[in-house]
Amino acid sequence: MSKEKFHIEFLMGNATQSSLWRMISQIDGLSEWFADEVTMDESETIYKFMWGKTDNEARIIHKKPQSSIRYRWLDEENEELYFEFLLRKLDLSGAMTLEITDFAEPDEKGDAIALWEFQVDEMKRRLGI
Fold it and tell me: How far apart are CA 110 and CA 127, in angstroms?
């Protein structure tokens, strides 16, 4: 079965673009909500994410500072699959949104979305939103 792309968007209220950028692109920010611990290799392009006794590594494959960052899991065989964070400022309200694109097996898509929702709720809590 092939993985399906999905896209979810979260309203991040009055969070600043720089605070959101730190949360999605820097090891200290990512370790606050995405993983228990995050480290980076010397090249600053491969991040190691640790959850308890489990870990996984991802490479940054695209980055537009203060706007978007795309990672690819190193153990993923299909090089076209990734997960991405995109920041946007809404024109009318000025509020920030966080858009997440990811891939999941069709029967696991609901669980994957629920996990992202849980993790983003933790990010919001850390940011005081």
Answer: 26
Q: Per-residue pLDDT tens for 18-29?
A: 999 999 999 999
Per DSSP, 25 falls in state H
Helices within 6-108 (DSSP H only): 17-25, 27-33
Short-list 112, 114, 119, 102, CA closest to 32: 119
pTM of the model: 0.92
Closest among 12, 6, 40 to 121, alpha carbons compared: 12
- Alpha-carbon distance of 87 to 94, in angstroms, equals 12
User: 116: which DSSP letter?
Assistant: H
For the chain, list the domains and their CATH numbers.
4-34+60-127 (3.30.530.20)
Model confidence pLDDT, tens digit, residues 33-88: 999 999 998 887 899 999 999 999 999 999 999 999 999 999 998 989 999 999 99
